[in-house]
Task: structure prediction
Amino acid sequence: MLKHLSVFFMLVATLLANTAIAEPTPTENVRSSVEAVIALLKDDQLDRETRRDRMREVIEKRFDFRAMSQRTLATNWKKASDAEKQKFTELFAELIQNSYVSKIESYTNETVEYPGEKQKGRKAVVDTLIITSSAEIPVNYKVYLKDGSWQVYDVIIEGVSLISNYRSSYREIVKKDGFDGLLAKMEFAAAAENAADKNSLVASIEADPNNSDARYQLASACITEG
Result:
């Protein structure tokens, strides 16, 4: 009986060890998302809107926007109602995704390197370098382990924290205009980015009146906005 129990516990220990080994590292999770976005950028079969939608899907899976929102608002998060928290998280996610997608679309065969990571318990920082023809741009991802996956809760670009940057400006807006004022400014910013996209489509059509993709996307955007 004792022998059988010993064998059983050895099997359990082996399974647990294999599970621990199989768990992805922070760098592996970040790399998989970055490479998925780059693959979408290189896919010539996708039209612009489809590519953007799929990029946003990748970003949503890797970024924890609620955690990012909570850290951005800091003490103001506790003061906000559930409805305000939900609205802020939705708008913040939209702004971050639009900004990320717009910047990444300027990708021109730069390479991304992963020089290292620093892990402490369930939190880690994944170091990456964007290598261009003239510079190396450090972009570090702060992540934490959630449900077996490493989720991004802050991005440090050339030493500047995305969360700290937003926190500073949003704190001043809330202090001056209240939470409703902050939400209104965020909605305006999101609308402005969408307008910039429309201007880009208009420019594409003016350059090539037969650009059916741009014409379709512009018409769809106008219909969506009513």
Remarks:
- The CA atoms of residues 123 and 144 lie 4 Å apart.
- The mean pLDDT is 81.
- The longest strand covers residues 136-146.
- Strands lie at 111-120, 123-131, 136-146, 149-157, 160-161.
